[in-house]
Specification:
Layout: H1 15-29, H2 38-52, H3 57-65, H4 69-79, H5 91-101, E1 108-112, H6 119-132, E2 139-145, H7 148-156, E3 158-160, H8 169-175, E4 176-178, E5 186-189, H9 191-194, E6 197-201, E7 215-220, H10 229-239, E8 243-251, E9 264-268, E10 271-274
């Protein structure tokens, strides 16, 4: 422990190292790290130095620059933040339920573009089942994320019971199976719900996205805050033609699209539609 009371770092980490990390993660994933993230970056990447046996950040960053695919994946996974919950920003799911009841064409396709550990796409699926009266809804949820670690957890669909605390007992019984024995204290998403969701890795900065079909709705919540305005605009511009003319775009509670009013206009609380969806040019 240093005399100031601040723990000494195991590895030297200069501002130049931090700037290189910022440059690499921005170029690869579009994530803008503020100066305030320096300690977070050190803490998360120090684990990678230990895991790879590197003694300095210079050695570790040389490994990244060498193009090691496995370590690039671990690097990106380390620096992405995945805060999520079932039915987070609950008003969105009320809006989605009403919206789904108006859809006449089937199938319905919804994209959860930052699905993290799966709570958001499974919440979308539960909403569809409840709104449309059963599992045979012809609703498909495409669930993508940059982080392969969280995608594996999402696909497994197993959660500690305390993660289900905000769900009613009725929802827990309808959509989850409680573990027993060595799985006590855990719950698994029922296969009927799980089958409605397809998980896959996607980097929103990729030149070509694997999402093709016209979408009824896109959830892109609490991800834009990690991008600068030009990157946000470029992503929204690519999303617009994927969304049906009467489709909805859901964004996070702290996100606003004032800089993209030519693409999307506000329809409700952090819910957007095509700028020219009604009577526009």
């Amino acid at each position: 422990m240093a005399e100031s009371g601040v723990p000494q770092r195991e590895f030297a980490f200069s501002h130049k190292d931090f700037e290189e990390v910022r440059k690499l993660i921005y170029q690869h994933a579009g994530i803008s790290l503020s100066d305030a993230k320096e300690d977070m970056v050190y803490s998360r990447l120090a684990r990678r130095l230990r895991a790879t046996g590197r003694k300095t950040f210079q050695e570790y960053l040389a490994l990244i620059r060498s193009g090691d695919d496995a370590e690039w994946e671990a690097f990106v996974n380390s620096l992405t933040t995945n805060l999520t919950d079932f039915f987070r920003e609950q008003h969105h799911f009320h809006i989605l339920a009403d919206f789904l009841k108006t859809r006449r064409e089937r199938p319905i396709t919804i994209w959860s573009s930052a699905s993290s550990t799966g709570e958001e796409p499974y919440s979308i699926a539960m909403t569809a089942v409840e709104a449309l009266g059963g599992f045979n809804t012809q609703v498909q949820i495409l669930a993508s994320d940059l982080d392969t670690n969280v995608l594996r957890k999402a696909e497994e669909g197993v959660y500690p019971l305390d993660r289900l605390g905000k769900l009613s007992e009725a929802r827990q019984r309808q959509f989850f199976l409680r573990g027993t024995g060595d799985r006590a204290g855990m719950a698994r998403v029922k296969p009927e719900l799980q089958s409605m969701v397809r998980f896959f890795r996607l980097n929103l900065l990729d030149a070509i996205w694997s999402v093709r079909q016209p979408l009824d709705a896109i959830f892109c919540r609490n991800v834009m805050i990690y991008f600068d305005k030009p990157t946000q605009y470029a992503i929204l511009k690519k999303m617009k033609p994927l969304l049906k003319p009467d489709g909805l775009l859901f964004v996070g509670h702290s996100e606003a699209l004032y800089h993209a009013t030519d693409l999307f206009r506000l329809r409700g609380q952090t819910v957007y539609e095509h700028a020219a969806a009604k009577g526009g040019k």
